[in-house]
């Protein structure tokens, strides 16, 4: 069973989270990590640990992180990554389950890069694996696509679909007090 803790700049696991964030997401898909830590937008920024791994089960092993925003009955998982050497071991599914437990009555959305836009076979394979992972975990395509920071995204949702208007209204509300912020 995974445990999770808030990510703060002072947390002992912050360097691990930051390194995974920077390695898991291309520069054009990241925002400065300081924005994930500030309180202008209420985010859930969690580091996940497996207590059963490590030194005879006594030292929890860092497995990954999630960063999500909730408003109304929508929770948007903005960033989510599992440590590369731990992928395909069920940790990603456990992280999604933990988020769902915290938000049982919300529609949970994630975005993925549109598969058709991949530039080569290796990238297409990564995008297809990502889509298949979310589908195995109960996410279905929502009728929403958008462009952000030079990338084309498709929305997937679990717990019910989200319309384009709902998605745009969600981001307008989240970013309303941040001057110059652009929503999808």
Can you walk through the features of this model?
By secondary structure, the chain is an alpha+beta fold. The protein has one domain: Aminopeptidase (3-Layer(aba) Sandwich), CATH 3.40.630. The chain is 30% helix and 31% strand. The protein is built from 5 helices and 7 strands. It has helices at 14-24, 33-37, 91-102, 121-136, 164-175; strands at 2-6, 43-50, 61-71, 74-82, 107-113, 140-148, 151-158. Strands 1-2-3-4-5-7-6 form a 7-stranded mixed sheet, with helices on both faces. The longest helix is centred in the last third of the chain and has 16 residues, at 121-136. The chain is globular. The mean pLDDT is 91.
Strand content: 25-35%
Residue windows where pLDDT falls under 50 for at least 5 positions: none
Strand elements, count: 7
What best-fitting shape do the alpha-carbon axes yield? globular
Average pLDDT: 91
Total tally of structural domains: 1
Short description:
30% of the residues lie in helices and 31% in strands. The protein has helices at 14-24, 33-37, 91-102, 121-136, 164-175; strands at 2-6, 43-50, 61-71, 74-82, 107-113, 140-148, 151-158. Strands 1-2-3-4-5-7-6 form a seven-stranded mixed sheet, with helices on both faces.
């Amino acid at each position: 069973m995974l445990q999770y803790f808030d990510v703060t700049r002072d947390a002992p696991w912050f360097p691990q989270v930051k390194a995974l964030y920077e390695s898991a997401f291309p520069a054009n898909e990241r925002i400065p990590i300081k924005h994930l830590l500030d309180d202008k937008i209420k985010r859930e920024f969690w580091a996940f640990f497996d207590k059963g791994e490590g030194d005879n089960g006594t030292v929890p092993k860092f497995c990954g992180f999630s960063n999500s925003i909730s408003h109304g009955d929508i929770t948007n998982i903005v960033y989510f990554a599992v440590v590369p050497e731990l992928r395909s071991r069920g940790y990603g599914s456990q992280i999604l389950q933990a988020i769902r437990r915290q938000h049982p009555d919300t529609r949970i959305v994630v975005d993925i890069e549109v598969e058709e836009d991949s530039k080569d076979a290796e990238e297409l394979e990564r995008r297809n694996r990502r889509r298949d992972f979310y589908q195995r975990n109960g996410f279905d395509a929502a009728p929403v696509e958008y462009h952000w920071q030079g990338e084309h995204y498709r929305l997937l949702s679990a717990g019910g679909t989200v319309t384009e208007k709902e998605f745009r209204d969600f981001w307008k509300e989240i970013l309303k007090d941040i001057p110059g912020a652009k929503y999808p």
